[in-house]
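Suppose you are handed a protein chain with no further information: no name, no annotation, nothing but its sequence. What can you learn? This example shows the usual starting point.
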Amino acid sequence: MAKLPDCTGKVAVLGYCLGALMTYLTAVRYGVDAAVAYHGGDTEKYLGEVDGLHAPLLMHLAEEDEFISKPAQAEIKTALAGKPNATVYSYPGQHHAFARHNGAHYNAAAAALANGRTSEFLHRQLQ
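A reasonable first move is to predict its three-dimensional structure. Written in structure tokens, the prediction is:
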């Protein structure tokens, strides 16, 4: 895909839930030009690999996520705070998959905010 005529040659990965963990692992283990993770369950188990993160990373966490505990979220935020290329946004009052249209916890305002941040981030990183 990086060689398609409309592509800048840069590659980003974006994932939700388990896909967000895979996004994080791809970014720290293999490298990409940008990475976006929504609700990366179990990311805290792999924070020992954070030194491998060289690509810009944007992560969205729902503060009331039933699959990522508050202590796990704190661990993630602390580990990524030391990385100048990582940005973590936390969404108060939101549950897992708040950005999944028609999902049980979908919140249009929070989803629009997260998706707008993602769009801006990817546009900036992939130029």
